[in-house]
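Entry for the shared binder. Reason: the reviewer on the internal report wants the predicted structure included alongside the sequence.
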Amino acid sequence: MIVEKITIGEKFPLDGLLTIPDVGEAPFPAIVLVHGSGPNDMDEKVGNCYCFRDLAEGFAKRGIATIRYDKRTKTYGKQMVKGPDASSLTVWEETIEDAIFATDLIKKDPRINPDKVFIAGHSMGAMLAPRIDAEGGNYAGLILLAGSPRRLEDIMTEQQDNAIGNMNPIIKWIANKQIKKIRSKWTGLYEMSDEEAKNTTFLGKYNKLYYLKEWGSKPAADYLKVLTKPILVTQGDKDVHVSVESDFNAYKEILKDKPNATFKLYPGLNHLFMKSIYGTVNKVMKEYKVPQKVEEYVMDDITDWVKGH
């Protein structure tokens, strides 16, 4: 494979890598890899696992190019949360704009077929993929890796409930008090003015409610309902960040009348599409410290789907 250093964007330049196959013939199909939540690097390193590096190398061996890059919040995180525009921070600045920059860059490469560029969003990236497509990505198809059509605050509520479920009574009582205080802040969020949302924090002093409000005002379901492009929805059934019932099955319901929708649920895999070890939210970071790789058969399925579209 050929791995080339690239730069994404101009005002906030980001380091990235373009991976080109050395098997098959150009122009190649390509996938834009879009991170999950948090200040991820281009490999989407979590613990001792490197999800995006595995995908890039695996797809290259299968004749598919990829582009990946450091997330803006990793390179410019302090500037973004403490700068003059911090209260107006949205997923556009955090994720969407750079995904579109990366897409434009790879579509211009003569080794890439510009009509066969797909987006593969993981977790938060999957939640935003339909919006990224609609707001400038214009992909040949969408690959959703362990995403959710729900709003972020609803997912956080469920995750919090799951996390405290196994705590001892005293710690659970303390945690419940803290959680209720956090949740009370987003009660009535969508009736709140933008100005009030920009001046109200949640989860620390830098996270403004406007971030939730702007994102939640453009739910993934609205984009999915009018989507006519091919879409592949994937998830591991041992994922503790999103659930089969609330997320995977919700996608199936929203997309039930879409003939171009394909669904893949993988038994025994976690949020990173690696083998689940502990299977509980309380031990999830311990699980990610165990070096593993994305399962080969997951990349086989995605490759077959990409080459079939």
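Summary line for the report: The longest strand covers residues 112-122.
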